[in-house]
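Possible regression after last week's pipeline update?

I re-ran a chain I had predicted before the update to compare outputs. Posting the input and the new output here so someone can diff against the archived version. Not blocking, just want to make sure nothing changed silently.
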Amino acid sequence: MKSLKYYLFFLFLIFAQQGFAQKDSIAVFPDSTKVMNDLFFLSSDSLQGRKTNTLGNEIAREYIIKRLQKVGVSAYVQDYLQPFTFGKDSIPAVNILGFIEGFTGKNFIVISAHYDHVGMEDSTKIFNGADDNASGVASLLALAEYFRENQPENNLLFAFFDAEEMGLQGAKHFMQSVVVDTSKIKMNVNLDMVSRGDKNELYAVGTYFTPYLKPLLNEASKDKSIELLFGRDNPKKKPYWVNASDHAPFHQAEIPFIYFGVDDHPDYHKITDTADKINPNFYLEAIRLIKEAIEIFDANLGEIVYGK
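New output (post-update):
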């Protein structure tokens, strides 16, 4: 009942502050109702923490695919599914790959978020993973719908990676597979924990390796109510987040990347990482910022070169 109470409160807050559409009849981005519905479902108890190779993980996967189908995002591989195994026990896992063709139809931006989490403990404690990383997945679904309606210049591949919590296995497999010619992947934008900006701050990690991206990000953030911070990517300084999520295999292949994420908070990897802790005002603004950053990256992709 507590989750329902908070969910209804958030819906009231969103509707009261934003409504369904602007007065000029242009739809507001992102659709707050869809985003919060996706977030609450993906982090609900019924998915039991979405651990790789569990029923909850499978339910999350089916939900994501249905959402992609509903908004008309194409499958990049058969049925959107890229199955693989990893580890000495050959644990099965599945990436989900959606695709939006750009005007040029040549180069790719991979926009990623992992949909797995850490599951349960003692069959009673559920690690819901609302911020980590139902927030990134719900954001990806909103972005996929937006770019389906607003065709980009370059191809966009929406990668919902599995087994991130077990060593970035989904992203590693994707980069090792032949499903995409990696020479055509010009950038990765990775979303992992983008909803709990308790200090109203969002980090963009990766400009240390590709400085050209920093002014582009400043342009995307200039009229936003949240503060975009840089750093956490200098190998000589801590904390160092470059190997912390699914952007790492792209970095290792010297592909420019930006990792969007909030600072660690007290609920990180705890059973208290629940949807009622999320501030929808911050979260929706973060999605808007990320969307505008992707549009700017898309328009300038030919100038984005790793190390420059």
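Follow-up from reviewer: compared with the archived run. The longest strand covers residues 91-100. Marking as no regression found.
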